[in-house]
Amino acid sequence: MKVALGQINPTIGDFSGNSAKIISFARRAQAEGAGLILFPELSVCGYPPRDLVERASFITHNWESVQNIAKETHGISVICGLVTSAHADTGKSAMNSAAWLRDGKVAFVQSKMLLPTYDVFDEARNFAPATQQAIVPFCGKQMALTICEDAWNDKHFWNRRLYSFDPVESLIGKGGNFVLNISASPYWMDKRKFRREMLASIARNNSVPVALVNQVGGNDSLVFDGSSLVLNAAGEVIAQGKSFEEDLIYFDSDRMTGEIHEQVEPEEAAAYQALVLGTRDYVRKCGFNKVIVGLSGGIDSALTACIAAEAIGRENVIGMGMPGPYSSRGSIDDARDLANNLGIRFELLSISEIYQSYRKQLQGVFAGLPEDITEENLQSRARGTLLMALSNKFGAIVLSTGNKSELGVGYCTLYGDMVGGLAVISDVPKTLVYRLSRYVNSRKVVIPEASLEKPPSAELRPDQRDSDSLPPYEMLDTVLEEYVEDSREPVQIAKDHGFDLQEVKRVVRMIERAEYKRQQAAPGIKISPKAFGYGRRFPIAAKSDI
Predict the structure, then answer these.
(1) What is the CATH number of the domain that holds 127?
(2) What confidence tens digit (pLDDT) does each residue in 251-280 have?
(3) Of 41, 169, 376, 481, which is the active-site residue?
(4) Which one, of 238, 233, 256, lies nearest residue 172 by Cα?
(5) Domain of 393?
(6) Same domain, 209 and 139
(7) List of residues 6+ apart from 254 with CB closer than 8 A
(8) Which strands make up the sheet holding 247-252, listed edge to edge?
(9) Residue 545 lies in a domain
(10) What pLDDT score was predicted for residue 88?
(11) Phi then psi dihedrals of residue 334, to 5 deg
């Protein structure tokens, strides 16, 4: 039998738009001779719907949409994800389910058993778990239909399992001989390889084929890479979808042959495309057509502008140069050159007079006090005010340009360089910023070499350098990764890398003191296993023993 994987990009709550995609892909697959098509987890409503599932009307719209899809796809069987009503005495009103549509009707519904509650996932908050699952006979196969996390508990793959029960093992024990998994598995760097190895373990150790269809697109901070897969019983990939694009993939469930579509490689290129896709979908799905980027002449704003231009088109990007009293001539020229290279609109507005006006107003209150970071932050906040004024006037969303290293240690200004609706590179450490920027220039040189070569500086005081306040970024990023992403202790980090322990502790203290800033930051696009945002939940008012 010819089977299709419908790798689509749904919008949360857009029932008519999502249904239209599902129907269109199903009809295309039917025209190509497919007898079955799979769509991602919660594809009818979009993933993750979060607290929207608490609205009774939201659940009703899911069910009505699925019934309509069934009527419109007569002649091909369809599996799609939806929210259904919970009937268990759990206090939850909804379940994360998969519907099997056949002959114009909803023939079978299977619900998710394993509800993740780690990192960005909080499904136990919203859904009731299924208490049992069943095999679906179809075209000579005993189909084990699972939903995303249901396949992430293989005892042969995980050293430490999060759940005592394995739905895949249970369904295979009931006679299942073909695993189907509909997924909304977010991207992070190296996730595609990890996911492939995990599925291969299931296939090899159970001697069954595995087919996974994954959501693609950006929803808030999450980017879903697609990269749908089919593996034979030996764990070999026999069909594969594109990364970061909608796709329709076919395979033969008897011969176990299929289409291999090219994926984005290497991983830096994939991370860049994830940022482009996440930016495009965030801007579009939030109803904006244009963006504004403050261009300092530095590498962070240059990379952000490149991502924006590729995401929504250069004609929809406004670059703002906002020189102050300590801005170098070279920085202004670098910002203008970048804008010209990208072909985006460029405007130059000086903040010098605004800054002096602020100082004049404050001089009485500040009498007798030395200049310090206060005066530096006034410049940043002047820029933030201009950016938001332009945002209001032009109806364009501001993209903030701070990287993960700065956000991690609080080397950023609230209501200044942190203003904006999306923090595009807030999950990109400074060292990765440079690697991604060089990747951009490897395709076509657009970022001025001076932006890549000059020492990083906020240019808020004479001859300022980031190194005046921070350790070298190579060290800082290592500490960030191991402390934030791997939860390792400062002593271990210092010992393993030969770092000065007191310097490691200083970085950790900066990370912890900056929590109040991060919780006020614009949402960012997640490309690491642990990003700042709702996937990392720490108290603000807490005492550290570091």
Answers:
(1) 3.60.110.10
(2) 999 999 999 999 999 999 999 999 999 999
(3) 41
(4) 233
(5) 270-465
(6) yes
(7) 1, 140
(8) 105-111, 94-102, 77-85, 36-38, 2-7, 247-252, 257-258
(9) no
(10) 65
(11) -65, -40
pLDDT in tens, 306-342: 999 999 999 999 999 999 999 889 899 999 999 999 9
- Do 219 and 282 belong together in one domain? no
Same domain, 189 and 90: yes
DSSP 235: S
Q: Tell me if residue 45 is catalytic.
A: no
- Three-state secondary structure call for residue 171: helix
Domain end (from 263, 283, 307): 263
429 plus 338 within the same structural domain: yes
Is 112 tagged catalytic?
A: yes
DSSP H helical ranges for 108-183: 123-126, 167-173
What does the alpha-carbon distance between residue 449 and residue 470 come to, in Å, rounded to a whole number? 23
Is 526 domain-assigned?
no
Please give the tally of structural domains in the chain: 3
* Cα 438 to Cα 270: distance, rounded to the nearest angstrom: 14
pLDDT at 82: 98
DSSP states along 287-353: T---EEEEE-SSHHHHHHHHHHHHHH-GGGEEEEE---TT--HHHHHHHHHHHHHHT-EEEE---HH
Please indicate, yes or no, whether residues 41 and 185 belong to a single structural domain of this protein: yes
Verify that 248 and 278 share a domain, yes or no: no
Per-residue model confidence (pLDDT) at position 461: 82
Together in a domain, 220 and 290 = no
Amino acid at position 31, single letter: A
CATH of the domain at 418: 3.40.50.620
What is the model's pLDDT at position 457?
Answer: 82
Of 240, 238, 232, residue with least CA distance to 206: 232
Look at residue 459 in the predicted model and tell me its pLDDT. 77
Annotated catalytic, 41? yes
Beta strand pairing status for 216-219 and 141-147? unpaired
* Cis peptide bond upstream of 48, omega within 30: yes
Catalytic residue among 45, 80, 148, 412: 148
Indicate whether 536 belongs to any domain. Answer: no
- Does residue 115 belong to any structural domain of this protein? yes
Q: What mean pLDDT is reported for the chain?
A: 95
Which one is catalytic: 2, 21, 92, 112? 112
pLDDT per position as a tens digit, 398-442:
999 999 999 999 999 999 999 999 999 999 999 999 999 999 999
Asked whether residue 182 falls in the same domain as residue 44, the answer is: yes
Q: Which residues of the chain have pLDDT under 50?
A: none
